[in-house]
Amino acid sequence: MENLERILTEHPFLKGLDKKHIELIVGCASNVIFKAGDFIFREGESADSFYFIRHGRVLIETYVPQKGPIMIRSREEGEILGWSWLVPPYRWHFDARAVELTRAIALDGKCLREKCREDHDLGYEIMKRFAKIIAERLEATRLQLMDIYGNGTHK
Amino acid sequence: MAHTNNIAERIIESNPMIVQQFRISRKIKETHDTFSIELELPDSMDGFSFNPGQFNMLYVYGVGEVPISISGNPSKNKILTHTIRVVGTVTKAINNLKVGDYLGVRGPYGAGWPVKQAIGKDVVVVTGGIGLAPLRPVISYLLTNREKYGKVALLYGARTPEDILYIKSLEKWRGRFDIETLVTVDRAVGDWRGNVGVVTTLIGKSTFDPLHCIAMVCGPEIMMRFTIMEFIKKEIEEKNIYVSMERNMKCGVGLCGHCQIGSTFVCKDGPVYCFEDIKDLFQRREM
Known about the structure:
The structure holds two protein chains of two kinds.
Chain A: H1 2-10, H2 19-26, E1 29-34, E2 39-41, E3 49-55, E4 57-64, E5 68-76, E6 80-81, E7 95-98, E8 102-108, H3 109-118, H4 120-146
Antiparallel strand pairs in A: 1-8, 2-7, 3-6, 3-8, 4-5, 4-7
Helix pairs in contact in A: 1-2, 3-4
Chain B: H1 2-14, E1 20-29, E2 34-40, E3 55-60, E4 64-69, E5 79-85, H2 89-96, E6 102-109, E7 122-128, H3 132-144, E8 152-158, H4 167-174, E9 180-185, E10 195-196, E11 213-218, H5 221-233, E12 241-244, E13 260-261, E14 264-265, H6 266-269, E15 272-274, H7 275-282
Parallel strand pairs in B: 7-8, 7-11, 8-9, 9-10, 11-12
Antiparallel strand pairs in B: 1-2, 1-6, 2-5, 3-4, 3-6, 12-15, 13-14
């Protein structure tokens, strides 16, 4: 646990968080490893956790009938994977698949939601940090939708 | 006769509007809509010197002229390379030319990338789509003069894996320890195992020092706008950000006014600008 606490304390996502809040979060954390090809979660499943990726790469995909899986984002070392655990109905919207050996710290979403309910200061800090992530991802998604490389005038 | 030739050569040297004939020595298919051509110099030329970021006007006889960035290695001045996306009549006509055919060339024109100002600093190059073409000479230049620079990072985004330019060069650069090469695509299928997401998402993953770097950005303006927003978030100073502007260039020497933005002519004063100098023009909608 000491090791998890150190890793989580040093993670940019939790930078500036009180020690007592870190301790609460550590209580919901565990080390996980995924082999290349493993699905970390699949669309429609219950979203009961999120991940601090420590090593490796994960592709977020959606399955299109007659086309197969389309990769829409990747997540790698230092990034957070998953925010559906925070928003009802707590279901994953996409698949997440490790494309290489991936080590992560998994945070139990149910456990953390309960702690956020009990301690609103912790809840605010978690919400604030996820709001930033969600905003960044929304902006990136809009850029993807704009097809920004397709309209260059370099001939 | 020799006297007449000398006069002709002097006229050609002194007049940037005169077109010279170059023979196509090689054609390379880069992607489904983009190709590179290598041109042999005419006998009258010893070499073709250019600064990374400059462009030439390419002329297909009887069809028309088009501005194209030089995409080759500036230290190899016996071959002139251009990378072209087929988007209009002239580029289609160039694509129809074969090895051995001739193409009219005049140039080089415009201001290039600030490779001299970047000496002693980190260099981060952010580019998307065919925007890599005018920046490939920068990468070649930096690698040729590697000891003069700090960290060098190339962040490149393409629509899909099939749209990635210069695959072999990128693989070579990725294998080197003295350049950080990050590539991403907007979407992928099949066995792609790399980054997926827009090029701006790579900026946070790169290890360059934002306080001691020169940033060079080339791509569609919308991509450059969002890239600059990310740079500003990372506290890169505007004076250290350089962008390549694209406008409808015709004469190449600042006379015709086709490429005028405000008080500047992209063909002559650009296409590469310091962002600090043009930020007021950058987002003006009527321009």
